[in-house]
TrEMBL record:
Protein name as catalogued: Uncharacterized protein
Pfam entry (one): TPR_16
Keyword line: Repeat, TPR repeat
Native organism: Thermosporothrix sp. COM3
Lineage, highest ranks first: Bacteria, Bacillati, Chloroflexota, Ktedonobacteria, Ktedonobacterales
TPR repeats: 153-186
Length: 352
């Protein structure tokens, strides 16, 4: 009876159900889409179009990061076709993304036993080996993934990561470029490309990559932080002020955001504004000698020598061997002595 039911769907019913499936996918109603596909699989399983819809929907769920749904769908598919390499590979993909690495490895190994040329299975294997820090094996698997799936951006992305682990940065950069060429909106290789460019000192290109990511995801914190670092190195302070201001809106209690905001103000010569907000940075990390020294330097440039001396003394209490703090302490002390013509090493009394 079940076999007969699988072949009773008329052509019109199939087309109607296919249209519903695509509509639900467009609306991101994953459960209804899955229900449609399961009906298609159960009643018209042997039609190649039905299996193509499974592959398509599985890819959509992966891109949408709906991994629980992908796992459930793949398990339903495998109940109908237990020896499907694609079903096993997508099941492994979902398990990997859900952090169930041992189960993912088992499912993926089964997929490769059934089809050792399946690109997704090799992509999965390289990804699992990277997560397990099996770097030589991961590199070999990633190279194999590229051989059998040269048009899959994920294969090239994993190859880039594997090469990075061996500090083969130029080769990794080439792999990420291949991945991005296949999918210009693939955030993962874009971020790692930017990281490599920063390490190589190619700051203008690193900034351009970060801007490309932000065009796709305006609130991407990693891209904003990478762009801030590049802009600081390039001394493009007005742009840095804007970007660090955006970071402060997203992560208001993060030292990185405050430090780059303050350095942008200082780079533009706005030392008075920097002095007004620098305590926000110090409150987040009060034992950081660099931040106290930054405060001392800001006050010194404003000719506020007593405040500069106090801040530098605080820095030296944290690290008495920190040369920048020692230099600022000596310079501020000298200025105060010239002003007052008397020693100024004793801090002023503070009201109780």
């Amino acid at each position: 009876m079940n076999e007969q039911q699988r072949h009773t769907m008329t052509a019109q019913e199939f087309e109607d159900l296919s249209a519903q499936l695509l509509q639900h996918i467009t609306e991101e109603d994953w459960q209804l889409a899955q229900n449609c596909l399961v009906r298609m699989l159960e009643q018209n399983f042997h039609d190649y179009r039905t299996q193509s819809y499974y592959t398509y929907f599985a890819k959509v769920l992966e891109q949408a990061e709906q991994f629980e749904q992908l796992l459930e769908l793949s398990q339903q598919y495998l109940r109908l076709k237990p020896a499907s390499p694609e079903g096993l590979a997508f099941k492994a993909r979902a398990l990997q993304k859900l952090g169930r690495l041992s189960e993912a490895t088992v499912a993926n190994d089964q997929a490769l036993l059934l089809d050792n040329t399946l690109p997704l299975a090799w992509i999965n294997r390289s990804g699992l080996q990277l997560l397990q820090q099996k770097y030589p094996e991961a590199l070999r698997s990633a190279q194999r993934a590229v051989e059998v799936g040269k048009n899959d951006p994920r294969a090239w992305a994993n190859l880039g990561v594997a090469l990075m682990n061996f500090q083969r940065l130029n080769e990794a950069l080439s792999a990420f470029n291949q991945s991005i060429a296949l999918d210009p909106e693939y955030i993962f290789p874009l971020q790692l490309k930017g990281e490599i460019l920063y390490k190589l000192g190619r700051m203008t290109e690193a900034a351009e990559v970060a801007q490309a990511i932000l065009a796709l995801e305006p609130l991407n914190t990693i891209a904003l932080m990478n762009l801030a670092q590049a802009l600081r190195s390039l001394e493009r302070y007005p742009e840095l002020l804007e970007i660090s201001g955006q970071l402060l809106q997203i992560i208001p209690d993060h030292v990185f955001a405050w430090e780059h905001f303050i350095r942008a103000l200082r780079g533009m010569g706005s030392y008075a504004q920097a002095s007004q907000v620098i305590d926000n940075l110090i409150q987040l990390d009060p034992t950081n000698v660099r931040y106290w020294t930054l405060k001392a330097d800001t006050h010194y440039r404003l000719e506020q020598y007593q405040q500069a001396l106090t801040a530098s003394e605080q820095a030296l209490e944290i690290d008495m061997q920190y040369p920048p703090a020692q230099r600022l302490h000596d310079k501020a002390l000298k200025k105060l002595r010239l002003q007052d013509r008397e020693p100024a090493s004793i801090r002023p009394m503070r009201p109780v």
